[in-house]
Design goal:
Residues 61-73 have a biased composition (Basic and acidic residues). By secondary structure, this protein is an alpha+beta fold. The protein has helices at 15-21, 49-52, 106-111, 140-151, 211-214, 238-242, 284-308, and strands spanning 8-10, 35-37, 81-84, 93-94, 97-99, 123-124, 153-158, 187-200, 223-230, 244-248, 258-261, 264-269, 274-281, 317-322, 330-342, 348-353, 366-368, 380-384, 387-390, 393-394. Bound molecules: zinc ion (ZN) (2 copies).
């Protein structure tokens, strides 16, 4: 770790505004938006091959031979680009966790886990502190971003398998998860992340269109519309969405999550393993907390992105918040080890990473340090020949 005085500080000017906007987030420290790259020179994105573009057929790492940045934080990898053809993609194994209908066997499944016995590298949300971050990334903006990523993470349980699941992944002979159990009723558990929250107030006087309110003579007018992203293999279509429940705030085993049953499905991309769900939330406190979390998360993504995205080939922190074994939410930290770029495309990618996951983590958002908020995201898919892996996303 270099001398802190030698670090190049990048400051943002509107810190006070950000702090004020985020005061309503419970248990959230004000945003400390000063953020720095631990290097001695002035950041120059043109130095970085990821910005200029490189011949990805060459993965020798020679592009970094003349890199003068501080090597104690910027470790140029010898190999990191791999090209994949969609028809030859290594789909590997999913990480959906099965359970009985009530999920009462999930703790025993967790205790019997052979992938990460003891789960020592998973951090319960309430225990997560800035000191868990690797020293090179120990900054308030990154710490708070991860807290908000966790706050926007939900558990998803599904009670049936759609008869419309395909036999194979598109353009592949890899079997599609649970095809052999199409039409069966049993419970599976995965993870999702909230990507949009719209708050409706009585002033707007728009009745909540959820099934409960549609059947009520007095539908509520104060509610939230929430969109959730997960993996297609977690919740495949409307048939499965209707038999799915979303657990908000399942942060500890003795917590009291808000559970919304019967979701809606509004978009599916089988090839990219992405699925989008929605629901209506009546709990006003939850809606307000989600709106605040989303606002803060977008701001912090922008702040961190400005500094780190140009250096994404070097600063590889990869963060996942998920519900391993369908149990309470855990944060795991690691680094990506392979960036797999689709043949013929500069920015369509999948990643492999050291970040711990277990069955139940399928569908969790994979945060790559500096990734901008907007865009086509990488959801955790499972494990393949190269370790834990994401679905397809856009950098
Ligand atoms: Zn496990
Ligand atoms: Zn309603």
């Amino acid at each position: 770790m270099g001398n802190k005085q030698g670090r190049h500080m990048l400051k943002w000017r509107n810190n006070e505004k950000r702090c004020n906007q985020r005061e309503s987030i419970p248990s959230q420290q004000p945003v400390q938006a000063d953020i720095y790259l631990d290097k001695t020179g002035t950041p120059d994105p043109a130095d970085d091959p990821g910005v200029q573009g490189v011949d990805i057929s060459s993965s020798s790492g020679d592009d970094h031979q003349n890199d003068t940045r501080d090597k104690d934080v910027v470790t140029a990898p010898p190999d990191y680009f791999y090209v994949f053809d969609c028809k030859a993609i290594d789909h590997g194994d999913h990480e959906v966790e099965e359970s009985d209908e009530a999920g009462s066997d999930l703790h025993s499944r967790k205790a019997a886990c052979s992938k990460n016995p003891g789960h020592t590298h998973f951090i319960p949300v309430a225990s997560f502190t800035i000191d868990h971050l690797p020293e090179d990334y120990r900054q308030d903006a990154i710490f708070q971003l991860i807290q908000l990523q966790a706050r926007l993470t939900v558990k998803i349980s599904t009670r049936c398998v759609s008869p419309d699941r395909p036999e194979f992944y598109p353009d592949s002979d890899a079997p599609y998860p649970f095809y052999n159990r199409c039409g069966d009723k049993f419970t599976r558990n995965g993870t999702g992340m909230i990507w949009e929250v719209q708050k409706y107030t009585p002033e707007a006087n728009i009745p909540c269109p959820c099934a409960q309110c549609l059947n009520s003579p007095d539908p509520i007018t104060s509610y939230g519309y929430v969109r959730i992203q997960t993996a297609a293999h977690v919740v495949f279509d409307e048939i499965e969405a209707r038999e799915s429940a979303c657990f908000f705030g399942y942060d500890s085993e003795d917590g009291n999550p808000v559970v919304i049953d019967c979701l809606s499905h509004f978009d599916l991309d089988i090839a990219n393993d992405e699925s989008f769900l929605s629901c209506y939330v009546h709990d006003e406190d939850l809606v307000n907390a989600l709106v605040d979390a989303m606002t803060g998360y977008e701001q912090l993504c922008g702040i961190v992105s400005e500094v780190y995205w140009p250096y994404r080939l070097h600063a590889r922190l990869t963060v996942i918040a998920s519900h391993p074994h369908g149990c309470s939410k855990q944060i795991s930290l690691g680094e990506w080890t392979r960036m797999n770029r689709m043949y013929g495309s500069d920015n369509v990618t999948t990643y492999n990473y050291t970040t711990c996951t277990c069955p139940g983590s399928s569908g969790a958002y994979v945060y790559l340090l500096g990734k901008p908020r907007r865009g086509f995201h990488h959801a955790h898919k499972g494990t393949n020949s190269y370790g834990n892996c994401s679905g397809i996303g856009i950098d």
